[in-house]
């Protein structure tokens, strides 16, 4: 049981420990318990500048007598309202601190406070800390990388902040806004203010209205004076709602029973291309029938069917019409009656301008009339790649296969992997802006062109820089790749740790994902499994993209399982086969005769099936080729093609029957 004497001893020990702690840790004698700190009373006479040292005077004194504590020679903590003072200790000599301090955060009423155990804390008079206007720069506060329809005002104003090197807002600075980039032919874009002064928070904002053309609009903000780097905003305009729907062709000359493909295109109210969706096709005034894909089949009634084909965009309720003239396959009026569309009989002199002078090939059939590029608008982030396809058509909207196609990129946005062919790939580099891809199709002396509208903008999170990959690389052989995560100011994102997806032009890249970034950089080996001339590697993550240079991959590592290096048949197999054949031909045994019989049956059926198969394949190929050259004669060609295929099947059946008879 603890007695009173023990309790008294424990209390005494505790008080001793507290006293020693105050003496040796805080180094402040107990005699200073009724003391305080006094600051220079003139500290508030003039404003200080953030980041610029100024003199600070503090006196330690006895509160009762007001005398300076000349024996006070220790360090105490000092802090200020914004907690940005350095140093954060004041070391006294004979009760006085007289030294230099720096405060980096601006404040209209800042105070410095000295704190020490056993002292009454003391604070200075409030004084002002001004931002350092000798080194001012601009920062983006809001409004970058927005997207809206053409001719509309962006929801979020473009806002910038003027700051000093310590991120203190700087007020009353002049800022100029300017539209420095816009799509070709655009008009109507505007800023609510073109210049102004920053407010007390260092901010200034302007509302931006997009122009009437789709693409990227570039707005800069810069100081009216000084050397601060201008800020760049990228705003993106998309097409408005469908306003006009067009049918191609608007007038079609179709032989009865033949087919005509109709296509649609759309525009918004400012002439920007819009891809029509949910098109409903119908024939309203006779002449034939049309399916959901716009393929019109002419009926048996000859005549002019005005405004009979109708296409309607069901969501927008916008439609368009086209007319059809149904003619005789031989190019004359035939015996058909008048079309239900209220047209008149068709006679040869009326349609001669639409016909060739010989045969049943009609005017414009197989002749390049227009070219269609898919997609015809690309609005995307930088460091991405996009496949493009161009197809030439005749006036009946059938493919023209003998047209040569070339591509040309304008605008410093990236490059095309090739300059010719129906299919190319566009690689957008880290250069935002506007441009076009011009597509030219030539067939003899005929030249048709089309255009792809381009608009690229920076990725919001930055981009991946992929070091140059040497060319060529061998398929199936690992090679080194280095990927660096950067922000849009080209600074390395040293703390980047997210997972990144990898892919390439061949679709055979391994690995397909990486995440082991060190200091914002990943270095490792990748493998492409198949050979290809123009290959690029993509790095993709949320809000960030990256594309490598174009390089070649040679060879193909894929091997056929079981294939020998020399391509020869094993000698033991040849010997066995030779022995069996010799016994079958020259031997007198019953087994030999059976072998010979089955061998003959196999040859008979095999040759018959091979011949009929080759014949049917040849017939189908030539038939499809004929339809491609002359789509209007499709019905006749198909009948002859099917007859030939039936005869081929009969021949195949006879060969199997012959083999069956031989084995009996």
From TrEMBL:
Asked if RNA-binding is a keyword of the record, the answer is no
What's the main place this protein lives?
A: membrane
- One example GO MF annotation: proton transmembrane transporter activity
Family matches, as Gene3D superfamilies: F1F0 ATP synthase subunit C (1.20.20.10), Immunoglobulins (2.60.40.10)
Task: Return the SUPFAM superfamilies for the record.
Answer: F1F0 ATP synthase subunit C, Invasin/intimin cell-adhesion fragments
- InterPro entries, per this entry? ATP_synth_F0_csu_sf (IPR038662), ATPase_proteolipid_c-like_dom (IPR002379), F/V-ATP_Csub_sf (IPR035921), Ig-like_fold (IPR013783), Invasin/intimin_cell_adhesion (IPR008964)
The signal sequence is: none
Q: Where are the transmembrane segments?
A: 599-620, 641-662
CDD domains annotated for this entry? ATP-synt_Fo_c
Q: Where is this protein localized, as stated in its record?
A: Membrane
Q: What are the residue boundaries of the V-ATPase proteolipid subunit C-like domain, all occurrences included?
A: 599-648
Q: What is this protein called?
A: Ig domain protein, group 1 domain protein
Which membrane topology describes this protein? Multi-pass membrane protein
Q: What is the lineage of its organism?
A: Bacteria, Bacteria division CPR2
């Amino acid at each position: 049981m603890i007695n009173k004497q023990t309790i008294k001893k424990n209390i005494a020990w505790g008080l001793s420990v507290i006293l020693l702690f105050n003496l040796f840790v805080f180094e402040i004698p107990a005699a200073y318990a009724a003391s305080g700190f006094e600051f220079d009373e003139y500290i508030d006479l003039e404003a200080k500048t953030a980041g610029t040292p100024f003199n600070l005077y503090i006196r330690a004194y006895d509160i009762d007598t007001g005398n300076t504590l000349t024996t006070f020679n220790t360090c105490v903590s000092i802090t200020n309202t914004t907690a940005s003072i350095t140093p954060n200790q004041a070391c006294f000599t004979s009760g006085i601190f007289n030294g230099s301090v720096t405060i980096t955060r601006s404040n209209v009423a800042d105070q410095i406070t000295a704190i020490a155990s056993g002292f009454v804390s003391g604070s200075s008079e409030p004084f002002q800390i001004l931002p350092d206007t000798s080194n001012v720069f601009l920062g983006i506060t809001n409004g970058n990388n927005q997207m809206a329809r053409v001719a509309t005002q962006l929801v979020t104003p473009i806002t910038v902040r003027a700051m000093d090197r310590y991120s203190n807002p700087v007020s009353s600075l002049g800022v100029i806004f300017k539209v420095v980039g816009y799509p070709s032919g655009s008009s109507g874009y505007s800023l609510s203010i073109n210049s102004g002064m920053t407010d007390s928070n260092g901010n200034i904002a302007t509302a931006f209205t997009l122009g009437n053309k789709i693409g990227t609009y570039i707005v800069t903000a810069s100081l009216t004076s000084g050397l601060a780097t201008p800020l760049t905003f990228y705003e993106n305009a998309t097409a408005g709602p469908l306003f006009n729907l067009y049918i191609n062709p608007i007038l079609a000359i179709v032989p009865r029973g033949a087919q005509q493909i109709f296509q649609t295109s759309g525009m918004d109210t400012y002439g920007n291309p819009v891809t029509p969706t949910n098109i409903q096709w119908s024939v309203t005034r006779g002449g034939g029938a049309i399916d959901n894909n716009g393929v019109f089949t002419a009926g048996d009634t000859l005549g002019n069917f005005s405004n009979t084909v109708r296409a309607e965009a069901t969501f927008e309720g916008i439609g368009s019409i086209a007319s059809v003239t149904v003619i005789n396959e031989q190019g004359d009026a035939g015996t058909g009656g008048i079309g239900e569309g209220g047209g008149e009989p068709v006679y040869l002199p009326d349609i001669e301008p639409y016909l060739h002078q010989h045969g049943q090939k009609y005017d414009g059939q197989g002749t390049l009339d227009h070219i269609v590029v898919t997609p015809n608008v690309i609005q995307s982030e930088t460091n991405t790649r996009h496949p493009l396809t161009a197809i030439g058509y005749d006036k009946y909207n059938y493919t023209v296969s003998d047209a040569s196609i070339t591509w040309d990129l304008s605008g410093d946005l990236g490059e095309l992997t090739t300059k010719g062919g129906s299919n190319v790939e566009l690689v957008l580099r880290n250069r935002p802006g506007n441009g076009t891809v011009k597509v030219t199709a030539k067939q003899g002396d005929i030249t048709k062109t089309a255009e792809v509208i381009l608009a690229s903008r920076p990725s919001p999170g930055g981009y991946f820089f992929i070091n140059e990959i040497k060319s060529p690389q061998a398929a199936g052989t690992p090679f080194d790749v280095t990927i660096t995560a950067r922000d849009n100011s080209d600074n390395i994102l040293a703390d980047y740790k997210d997972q990144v997806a990898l892919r390439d032009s061949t679709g055979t890249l391994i690995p397909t994902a990486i995440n082991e970034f060190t200091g914002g950089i990943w270095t490792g080996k990748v493998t492409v499994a198949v050979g290809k001339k123009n290959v690029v590697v993509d790095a993709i993550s949320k809000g960030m993209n990256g594309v490598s240079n174009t390089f070649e991959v040679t060879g193909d590592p894929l091997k056929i399982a079981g294939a020998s290096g020399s391509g020869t048949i094993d000698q033991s197999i040849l010997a066995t086969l030779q022995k069996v054949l010799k016994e079958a031909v020259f031997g007198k045994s019953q087994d030999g005769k059976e072998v010979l019989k089955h061998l003959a049956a196999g040859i008979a059926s095999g040759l018959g099936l091979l011949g009929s198969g080759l014949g049917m394949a040849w017939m189908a190929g030539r038939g499809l080729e004929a339809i491609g050259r002359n789509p209007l004669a499709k019905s006749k060609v198909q009948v002859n093609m099917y007859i030939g295929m039936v005869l081929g099947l009969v021949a195949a059946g006879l060969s199997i029957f012959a083999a069956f008879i031989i084995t009996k």
